[in-house]
Amino acid sequence: xxxxxxxxxxxxxxxxxxxxxxxxxxxxxxxxxxxxxxxxxxxxxxxxxxxxxxxxxxxxxxxxxxxxxxxxxxxxxxxxxxxxxxxxxxxxxxxxxxxxxxxxxxxxxxxxxxxxxxxxxxxxxxxxxxxxxxxxxxxxxxxxxxxxxxxxxxxxxxxxxxxxxxxxxxxxxxxxxxxxxxxxxxxxxxxxxxxxxxxxxxxxxxxxxxxxxxxxxxxxxxxxxxxxxxxxxxxxxxxxxxxxxxxxxxxxxxxxxxxxxxxxxxxxxxxxxxxxxxxxxxxxxxxxxxxxxxxxxxxxxxxxxxxxxxxxxxxxxxxxxxxxxxxxxxxxxxxxxxxxxxxxxxxxxxxxxxxxxxxxxxxxxxxxxxxxx
Length: 373
Ligand code: F6P
What we know:
The chain has 373 residues and is α/β, with parallel strands linked by helices. The protein has two domains: 5-153 and 293-335, 3-Layer(aba) Sandwich (Rossmann fold), CATH 3.40.50.450; 157-290 and 343-355, Phosphofructokinase domain (Rossmann fold), CATH 3.40.50. It is built from eleven helices and 13 strands. Strand 9 and strand 10 form a beta hairpin. It binds 6-O-phosphono-beta-D-fructofuranose. The site of 6-O-phosphono-beta-D-fructofuranose has 13 residues, from strand 10.
């Protein structure tokens, strides 16, 4: 494949580190390979727009100073025309958009596309790749729920935000002898809740992979009270669900995308008056997606972005860059598309939490170690 110009776009919900990837792609493509680089505004939607509006040329000066910036200089969306069919979730609802996107790239001399995003982005990239467009995907999401990579970028920064919040809430919870419920993001995976919960020394962590029981939560709070611990911190993933009951979500979005949230408030309603303490909730929400990427994420983004360019140069497209152990590798997109990486029920991280006396809100736990301080 002879490459003269590559495109880059950011898609899906934003995450800290998008600009760091853009910067690495631009610098590597220009300095090492002498290619032109263009950015596509507004994610895949930009491929359907007037190119004079959606294409911007990206030179070395354009990416100077953007490494620490949160958000994305290219804009992004997790809604739009590249939605998947409700009846056939692996197919685009409007199959013509894939051809239009590819035509856009041909018309504008874009030989390959670097797409930075999460599961939705992977699915769209896979479709474009099947239709013949050389694609490299870069795994982004604070949720860390993509298969084929040990970590996605943005996750570590989101964890820092969530853990700092838990640290701050601990002192006010302790001062008032309260139960504090902290809702974090993550969709149907509990990575943010479990890691931030352990990192922030929470007492109860509720994740989608392990359905919880209110009775179990109350028992754990009572055990702590008997042991003289005046307060309790509960970290709950937005996608956590009761053992008998429905997942909670508010509203059904266009394109079949469910928006999660509200479980902390629901939990407060369940616990209030039952555990003999004031219960309060805090929803961290989009704070977890904002801000400057952590140093670890900056380095990961830079390695991912550089590798994406090298793969295009080697003609190894249709792939997602990934982190395996300490090495940057890549994997065929079709092997990871439309699948999710969730927390293994009996994995070491779950065992570690249980071993410390953290309640995961389920019945199976034998709380021999009565509580964690
Ligand atoms: O996938 C990233 C994520 O932040 C999820 O954790 C969350 O459920 C969702 O996006 C929120 O999306 P929106 O920005 O549309 O509210």
